[in-house]
């Protein structure tokens, strides 16, 4: 982006000393940096006018983020120096053209997380984080998580003589000793032990 500033300098020549001073001024104007364009005009024998046009060049990325979305980072192409917009970490480009239109990744296809997982963001980097919901176990070997019903994975952590089910409200795993077994544990999950049934007597 280019800003233009025009500065008129008007002097009345009344002595040789003033003329020399103005000549020096004009010389300095003509020696300006290549970004400056100095024009000199003479209107009469005693009036001298100098117009200086100064081009102030600003990095586009410093002005309104280069036109990029406010959740995007503005940079420049290494070859053409054209503006490039890239959504920040934790945001997804949902636009169909340029510049990008960035939206919270968790609102787009659950951030790429399993449909039985909750998408959130890292407090430091804002990167997407996936965590299996209550009642589901991560059976994947990498990222993102792959969530499966906990009761189908090692009986949900329940004793092998217990039945795994889910709480109707929270979906948390519930373990209950099978018929003929009693919970002899002191906490969760249950620890099931067989009951001693009385012998049947035949008369």
- Report the β-strand fraction as a percent range: 35-45%
Element-level helix/strand string: EHEEEEEEEEEEEEEE
Provide the domain count: 3
Please identify the structural class as seen in this structure.
Answer: mainly beta
Gap from first CA to last CA: 107 Å
If you consult CATH, what is the topology of the largest domain? Cell Cycle, Chain A
Shape: rod-shaped
Strand line-up across the major sheet: 1-3-2
Largest sheet: 3 strands, antiparallel
Low-confidence stretches: 1-16, 32-45
Q: Summarize model confidence as the mean pLDDT.
A: 80
Tally the helices: what do you get? 1
CATH class of the largest domain: Alpha Beta
Rg from C-alpha positions?
39 Å
Estimate the helix proportion, in percent: under 10%
What's the architecture of the largest domain, going by CATH? 2-Layer Sandwich
Number of strands: 15
Topology summary:
Elements lengths: L1 E11 L3 H15 L5 E9 L2 E11 L14 E5 L6 E5 L3 E3 L8 E3 L12 E5 L6 E5 L3 E3 L8 E3 L12 E5 L6 E5 L3 E3 L8 E3 L9
Antiparallel strand pairs: 1-3, 2-3, 4-5, 6-7, 8-9, 10-11, 12-13, 14-15
Provide an overview of this structure.
The protein has 203 residues and is mostly beta strands. The chain has three domains: 2-57, 2-Layer Sandwich (Cell Cycle, Chain A); 60-107; 155-203, no CATH class. 7% of the residues lie in helices and 39% in strands. It is built from one helix and 15 strands; from the N terminus they run E-H-E-E-E-E-E-E-E-E-E-E-E-E-E-E. It has one helix at residues 16-30; strands at 2-12, 36-44, 47-57, 72-76, 83-87, 91-93, 102-104, 117-121, 128-132, 136-138, 147-149, 162-166, 173-177, 181-183, 192-194. A hairpin with an 8-residue loop joins strand 6 (91-93) and strand 7. Residues 1-16 and 32-45 have low confidence and may be disordered.
């Amino acid at each position: 982006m280019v800003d233009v500033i025009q500065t008129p300098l008007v002097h009345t020549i009344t002595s040789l000393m003033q003329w020399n001073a103005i000549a020096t001024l004009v010389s300095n104007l003509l020696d300006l940096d290549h970004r400056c364009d100095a024009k000199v005009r003479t209107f009469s024998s005693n009036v001298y006018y100098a117009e200086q046009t100064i081009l102030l060049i600003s990095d586009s990325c410093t002005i309104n983020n280069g036109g990029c979305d406010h959740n995007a980072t503005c940079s420049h192409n290494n070859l053409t120096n054209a503006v490039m917009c890239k959504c920040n970490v934790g945001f997804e480009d949902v636009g169909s053209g340029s510049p990008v239109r960035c939206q919270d990744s968790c609102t787009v296809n659950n951030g790429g997380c399993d449909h039985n997982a909750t998408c959130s963001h890292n407090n430091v980097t804002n990167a997407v984080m996936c965590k299996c919901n209550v009642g589901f176990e991560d059976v994947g070997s990498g990222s993102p998580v792959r969530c499966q019903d906990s009761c189908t994975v090692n009986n949900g952590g329940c004793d092998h003589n217990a039945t795994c089910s889910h709480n109707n409200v929270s979906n948390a795993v519930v373990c209950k000793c099978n018929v003929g077994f009693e919970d002899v544990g002191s906490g969760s999950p249950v620890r099931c032990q067989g009951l001693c049934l009385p012998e049947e007597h035949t008369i």
